[in-house]
Recover the amino acids of this structure.
């Protein structure tokens, strides 16, 4: 790992030199391979790999132990925090579910009341003195002739 | 011993060191016992202990499915389920209850206290619980106190309270003493619409009677469940949900009944039956085009879900009676269809006529009349019918009656439905073979009577009736349940001729049973039936018609027992006209053209 790292880190520097020699030639090539590549490598896994490499290159063995313990403890803490958060969420969700179910009950109840009122609407209308339309008036247009006023 | 002392001396161990070692050994012993126990608990019995703990935390919670609704075709909800709670008391806990007065240290520590309208409870034990609970439940505190007194663990204090009341009880801080159990209540439309037809539910949530029972398969859902480990307050411990099955809600069932029509029919019928002092009344409105039953009512006032509704089937479905003169319609159909006579054949009809030694006479005396066959139906002449059917065999009479659906099941499979009675021609005596021509000697229910008339309205096609329109499952998938089977039983021409004669039959009742602006084809009937005294002292007056006659849309049938006034035409006919008028207005039916094609009734 360490060697690969060395080779790669040496690459940009060697390329960096070339634009100095021929400034007008292939400026884009320099920009792309140089800065961006290192940036991408610097994030995530490769950064961690670099850190491990650095740690194992230390002379004092204590530092490795310290690092291991720190990682272990932080993992445990992390698990604990996550676990707590999950339980917290579980409480929240059961509280929300309870409130949803009580709201659903209310909605159901109101809907039932509304339905009942709707069903009793004709009776209520009659009680208030309304009567259904009775009889019908019709005009027989048989034999009707337009007098030509309408176009 | 000596050797041990020598050994100690050699190794330079003095008395102090000996004691130290002894204590050390004891401690080591204790430690190893602990270790052994630990090994036992963790390794040997570990699995069993863990399982026991898990199972005590694990619970299977039932997710109850919701029962489907019963709807009218216009969307009115006739029956639906709502969530309710049964309030359960634990008398054992209530007896040892001590209220916590507000403002005390205990109240501050527990963060709750008990009070009634800001005042201390002023009692302990069951009495205190009862005082707190009574106003919320709307019950008497003394009664509640008596129920809560004892050593039981389970007493139902009140059934089917609303969720709001249950929540109010939760806020009383009586946990462990009073709690709510989820239940379900069936709620029906407020009025007595279709009461016994809808039926009701038992307390345990099973269907008891009526459509609730016959449609139970569609309406009831399947309960689901969820298995998980729960914390103290019932919350799910994350990641422990091991099994779930969603509840399958029941399907909604839509009837062909239009609640507006049904309501109006019920109103007309109840008022009509009351004003004419009838024992009971039944009315049916059927859509002539589809066979859908739009209204099916009787004059009984039974609220769906009541104990009466659970015990009785609907009268509109169970009551059978002799149709009387409406039975002349299949009689006439048999004469015409079998080519015995034509509709305009001439008859000289006497008041009294004797056939096979049996004498038949008309309802009202009249001298000999010159009537055509249409005239015989118009004037509802029994003598005329017997006379015209002389050449008709018993089998031909019987077959036509069955083709009109008499003695046959309606196919609606309604609870308590009776198919009436029609005996086979071999069992007919010399009189019955002729009385069947004018609707005596067999019985029908109101739906069968409506179907009989619908054959004429449908130009000779016997169409099956429907009461269930569709079933909608919880995914919204609608399945039509309409009966579409139809059989031609009569030539179209003959059906039209009979309809024409039925239109003439209205002439007599035009003022009472006519609907202004519309042509109506009707037939009335009056039959003597066995009354309460066991004699033929009671009458059934029925009236059935097609409206409008020129373009049949509806068949309205009204039946009453013992109304004031003898004849079906004047009593039930009046109600027919009211219902007919309402239908024409509601469905915006265009007025009929004047009648020009009347078949002569006299010669």
């Amino acid at each position: 790992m360490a060697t690969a790292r060395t080779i790669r880190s040496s690459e940009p520097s060697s390329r960096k030199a070339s634009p100095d020699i021929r400034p007008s030639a292939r400026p884009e090539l320099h920009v792309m391979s140089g800065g961006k590549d290192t940036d991408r490598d610097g994030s995530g896994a490769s950064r961690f790999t670099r850190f491990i490499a650095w740690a194992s290159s230390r002379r004092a063995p204590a530092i490795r132990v310290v690092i291991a313990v720190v990682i272990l403890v932080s993992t445990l803490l992390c698990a604990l925090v996550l676990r707590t958060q999950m339980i917290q969420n579980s409480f929240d969700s059961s509280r929300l579910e309870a409130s949803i179910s009580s709201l659903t009950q209310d909605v159901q109840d109101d809907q039932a009341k509304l339905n009942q009122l709707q069903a009793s609407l004709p009776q209520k209308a009659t009680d208030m003195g309304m009567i259904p339309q009775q009889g019908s008036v019709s005009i027989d247009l048989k034999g009707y002739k337009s007098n030509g006023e309408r176009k | 011993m000596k050797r041990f002392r020598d050994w100690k001396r050699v190794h330079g161990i003095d008395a102090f060191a000996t004691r130290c070692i002894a204590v050390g050994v004891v401690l080591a012993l204790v430690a190893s016992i602990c270790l052994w126990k630990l090994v036992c608990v963790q390794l040997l019995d570990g699995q069993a202990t863990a399982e026991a703990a898990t199972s005590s935390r694990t619970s299977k919670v039932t997710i109850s499915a919701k029962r489907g609704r019963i709807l009218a075709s216009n969307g009115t909800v006739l029956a639906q389920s709502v969530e309710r709670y049964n309030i359960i008391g634990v008398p054992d806990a209530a007896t040892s209850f001590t209220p916590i007065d507000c403002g005390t240290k205990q109240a501050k520590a527990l963060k709750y206290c008990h009070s009634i309208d800001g005042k201390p409870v002023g009692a302990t034990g069951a009495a205190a619980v009862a005082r707190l609970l009574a106003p919320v439940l709307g019950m008497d505190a003394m009664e509640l106190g008596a129920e809560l007194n004892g050593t039981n663990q389970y007493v139902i204090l009140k059934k089917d309270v609303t969720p709001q009341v249950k929540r109010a009880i939760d806020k009383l801080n009586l946990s462990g003493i009073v709690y709510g159990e989820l239940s379900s209540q069936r709620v029906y439309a407020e009025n007595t619409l279709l009461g016994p037809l809808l039926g009701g539910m038992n307390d345990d949530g099973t269907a008891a009677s009526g459509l609730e029972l016959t449609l139970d398969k569609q309406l009831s859902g399947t309960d689901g469940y969820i298995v998980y480990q729960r914390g103290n307050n019932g919350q799910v411990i994350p990641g422990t949900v091991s099994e779930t099955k969603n509840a399958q809600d029941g399907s909604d069932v839509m009837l062909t009944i239009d609640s507006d029509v049904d309501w109006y029919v019920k109103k007309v019928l109840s008022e009509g039956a009351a004003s004419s002092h009838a024992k009971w009344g039944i009315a049916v409105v059927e859509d002539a085009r589809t066979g859908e039953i739009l209204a099916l009512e009787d004059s009984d006032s039974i609220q769906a879900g009541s104990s009466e509704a659970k015990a009785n089937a609907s009268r509109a479905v169970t009551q059978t009676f002799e149709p009387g003169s409406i039975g002349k319609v299949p009689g006439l159909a048999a004469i015409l269809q079998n080519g015995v006579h034509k509709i305009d054949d001439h008859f000289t009809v006497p008041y009294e006529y004797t056939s096979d030694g049996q004498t038949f006479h008309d309802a009202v005396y009249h001298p000999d009349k010159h009537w055509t066959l249409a005239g015989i139906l118009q004037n509802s002449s029994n003598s005329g019918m017997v006379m015209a059917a002389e050449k008709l065999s018993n089998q031909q009479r019987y077959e036509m009656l069955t083709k009109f659906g008499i003695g046959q099941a309606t196919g609606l499979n309604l609870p308590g439905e009776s198919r009436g009675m029609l005996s086979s021609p071999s069992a007919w005596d010399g009189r019955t073979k002729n009385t069947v021509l004018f609707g005596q000697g067999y019985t029908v229910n109101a739906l069968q009577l409506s179907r009989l008339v619908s054959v004429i309205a449908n130009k000779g096609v016997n169409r099956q009736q429907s009461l269930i329109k569709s079933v909608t499952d919880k995914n919204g998938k609608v399945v039509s349940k309409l009966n579409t089977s139809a059989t031609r039983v009569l030539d179209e021409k003959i059906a039209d001729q009979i309809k024409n004669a039925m239109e003439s039959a209205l002439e007599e009742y035009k003022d009472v049973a006519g609907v202004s602006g519309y042509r109506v084809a009707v037939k009335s009937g009056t039959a003597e039936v066995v009354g309460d005294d066991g004699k033929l002292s009671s009458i059934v007056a029925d009236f059935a018609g097609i409206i409008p006659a020129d373009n049949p849309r509806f068949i309205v049938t009204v039946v009453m027992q013992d109304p004031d006034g003898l004849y079906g035409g004047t009593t039930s006919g009046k109600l027919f006209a009211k219902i007919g008028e309402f239908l024409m207005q509601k469905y915006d039916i265009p007025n009929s053209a004047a009648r020009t094609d009347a078949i002569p009734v006299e010669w």
